[in-house]
Amino acid sequence: MTYQALVYSYNIYLHPLKRYPGPRICAASALPLIRQSLKGNAVLWMVRLHQEYGEVVRVSPNELSFNSAGAWKDIYGHRKSDRGALQKDPRFYQGSAANDVVDIINANDADHGNIRRVFANAFSDRALKKQESLFLTHVDKLISLLGKDAVLSPSRMVNMVDMFNFTTFDIMGDLAFGETLNMLDESGYHPWVSAVFANFRFGTYLHCIRYFPSLENVLLQFVPRSLKTKQKMHGSFSQSRVDRRLEKQDARPDIWGLVLQRGDCEVSMSRLQMYAHSNLFMIAGTETTATLLSGLLYYLLTNREKLARLTVEIRGAFENECTITIERLQSLKYLQACIDEGLRMYPPISNGLPRLVPSVMLMDWMDWIWGSIQSIQQGPEHQSSRSNAYPIPDWETWHTTSFP
Known about the structure:
Layout: H1 2-13, H2 24-28, H3 31-39, H4 42-53, E1 56-60, E2 63-66, H5 69-76, E3 87-88, H6 90-93, H7 109-119, H8 125-152, H9 160-177, H10 183-186, H11 191-209, H12 216-219, H13 225-248, H14 255-260, H15 265-268, H16 271-284, H17 287-301, H18 304-317, H19 326-329, H20 333-345, E4 355-356, E5 373-376, H21 378-383
Parallel strand pairs: 2-5
Antiparallel strand pairs: 1-2, 3-4, 4-5
C-alpha cells in the first residue's frame, strides 16, 4: 500500500506530464481509463473530458489525448528530415499470439510501404471498376429483400444494423476469398462474424491488461474462455479460405486475384502474412462500414429535411436504379456531404490510435515528453464544443461551397 501511494504521489506531483490538465485521479492511475474502456463508454467520457479541460487532456499517468487540428500532422503525419517519427505503441498494436506477424496495421514505416505496394493493385480505382459487379450483386440482393419485406409486412420493424452487417460481410467474403457468407440469404449471422465481434471484445480486454505488463500472462487467464475460442475461430476461418482461394489460381478480380497478378506476392509476403491480412480485411471492410451506414441512416431519419434533400438529389441524377454506378455516385455532392457528416458524427473507429514519443521533441507548439503516449480521439475531435466541429449533425458544414 505504501509503495502504491508513493507511485500515485509521483504521478501527480513529480511526473514529467504533471503540468498537463485532466482529472487528478487520471494523473495518478490508469484505472479510470481502463474502467471506461471495459464499460464501453471511453469515447463519450473523452468527449466530456475535452469539453472540460480543453485541447490536451492527461487521461492516464503517461498518456495525453489531443483534440486539435494541429496535432494531427504532428502525431500521424509523415516524418520530417529534422525530426524523428512517432512510433506505434506496441501495447496497442501488438497481437497476443506468440507467432505474431507483421501486417499493415502493426508494421513500421518501411514494412508498411512494402505491404501497401503489394496490395496497391487490389485497391486502386481500376480495381474498383472491375469489382463493381460484385458489389452490385449483394447490394441488389439487400434492396430486393427490403422491398419484399416492405410489401409482405409493411408494419414490421427491420433491424438495419443487422442488414448492413449481412451485406458488408457477404461482400467482403466474396471480395477477399471468392466465397460469400450467404448471410443475406439466410438472414442470420455466420459463426465467423460472431467470432469477429468477439475479437473486438478480446482486443479491449488485451489493451487494458497491457497497462500492467508484468501481469499480462496472469490477467489473460481471467479473460472469458469463449472470447479466446472465438478469436482462434476467426483466425481458422481466414486461413482455410485463403488456402482455398490461392489454390484456384484464377483471374477473378477479387483482392487476392488482383494481388497475385503482380507475380511477386508469394515472394514478398509469407503465407502467415496473407492469413493476417485476411483477418484484417474481414474486420476493416465489414463492421466498420456497417457501423458508419447505421449511424448515417439514424441521423438521416432524425433529420427528415436532410433525407428529403438527399432523396431529391439521387432520384434526380438517375433515370432508374439500373443506371446507378460507382462513378456516377461520386459526382453527387450532397451524398458526399452526408457521408462526411456521418463519418464525423459516427466514426467507426472513434478511439485514439496511440503513438510513442521518441527521444526528440516533435511539436512546434508544445513540448512532448520522451516515452509518453499521444493520440487523437476522433469522437472528441469531431464533436467537442471546443473544436471547430459542430456537436450536432450539420451537413452543410463540410461542403458550404458545394451547395447553392
